[in-house]
Batch of 2 targets.
Target 1
Amino acid sequence: MKKKILVTGGTGYIGSHTTVELIKEGFDVVIIDNLYNSEAEVVDRIQKISGVKPQLEIIDVCDQEKLDLFFKNNKDISAIIHFAAYKAVSESISKPLDYYKNNLVSLINLLDAMKRYGVPDLVFSSSCTVYGQPEKLPVNEEAPLQPPTSPYGNTKQIGEEIIRDTAFSDKNIKAIALRYFNPIGAHPTALIGELPRGVPENLVPYITQTGYGLRDELKVFGDDYDTPDGSCIRDYLHVVDLARAHVIAVKRLIEGKNKTNYEIFNLGTGNGVSVLDAIKSFERVSGVKLNYKITGRRAGDIEKIWADPSFANKELGWKTISTLDESMKTAWDWEKKIREKQ
């Protein structure tokens, strides 16, 4: 009997790639999504890649009544992977209440449903933003959490605390928080990828849209940071590598291999890459000279961060496979493919 996994936000960027990997590993997947920042047709694209069309329920996880009805009708869910959240750092600074309400109420509703309907296992989509600007790099899971630089980062920090407290108070609930660094790229088929609505908040879609000519220029926020070339440094990992980690985490919980009721893992490559180096990578793989301009620093940005992923490497047997150039090439292939259709 196939285990059924609920993926909230499963038509989104990371959720869709994770759904593909879950199907590949023999899981039955049901998606809940309110399509706030994604399209229903993503399930058709998932089917083209995997040969299986996941069940899609259009529900807002903040709507407790509809969520309750969903669990009443789906009593065979083995585990949940929770992606559904607002995720733009700068938008969260201008709309903090929207972020606190959406990201925290949805999580509380899910945990409440898990307790009431006996769903034992949760994988939570967290973020390296919980570290703020770490005092020591690379950053490992033991690093003290810094005050978040944005309401978005704060929702991830508070979300982790809510899950930790719930797992410690109820021994029937087990959870893993995965702290992502910076996911980039797209599925190698170019059938799914990152498709932000409006102006992209993340660097790579802005790079590819500028490369394609949709945007006049890319703004590089700051060249006066304490880094080798003055631009911010991040740890960019391929979205398929990230998706694989969720499958491993779900299996770990289902098979009872977790060491405690609440575990945390960093997911990154272990390499810091500057914004200017990311631009060079794009130019290498695309053959396109990118039009960019250095401008002032952006509110909420930290200077530099990259992961020490050795705990996830050892404990989960997971590590990244794709290089920066390979990841960037899939992002570019995806950009070209979606624009050809328009």
Target 2
Amino acid sequence: MTAPAIALSDVTKQFGSHVALDRLSLEISPAETAVILGPSGCGKTTLLRVIAGLEVPDRGQVLLDGVEVAASGRAIVPPHRRQLGFVFQDLALWPHLTVDGNLNFVLRAAKVPRRERLARAQKALRLVRIETLARRYPHELSGGEQQRAALARAIIGEPRILLLDEPLSSLDPELRSVLRSELAHLRRELNVTIVYVTHDREDAAALATRIIEMQAGRILAVREPH
């Protein structure tokens, strides 16, 4: 039997007196697109950060592909060894690097041989449809182009899991609709496990294979998209 791509068991994460995750248990299957839906402050981003290893659970256990990566109070596998791609809500593109520079930074950190980097970068840019923008800096890009550049950086390491934190929240409705369709296309192309955080029900309906509703650090409901 294939292990879940992601499994959280009884995970609790607290910041001071605020309980961000409250004994949360969840399994996400390989190649599934799980959309985490809920209001601001319900624990969605903390859940992504715990999966990524950017936060350590106070209690509980996190497994990726059946391998324990974190347990109560400790990280067992560091973030850079979890084979994850992460698009942060503020995108976090390095402003002093071009789009190509952002991609190559990831490839160098992953020790990808120089002869492979160009092909990998071109493929990532082609997938998100910004091949002509490789030499531009983030401030020279539109909001939608920045989103695409952040996606390219997230996928260039060929991750097994892609974590997306409100990636379309800052865009106007028309561009949001276009990029929503592009993300659905990208999901089919990559065939990776995706965890997509949003408070937007249209995003959830368009992208999810399963919708997980959160409230106050707990899972309120799990359902199929309509």
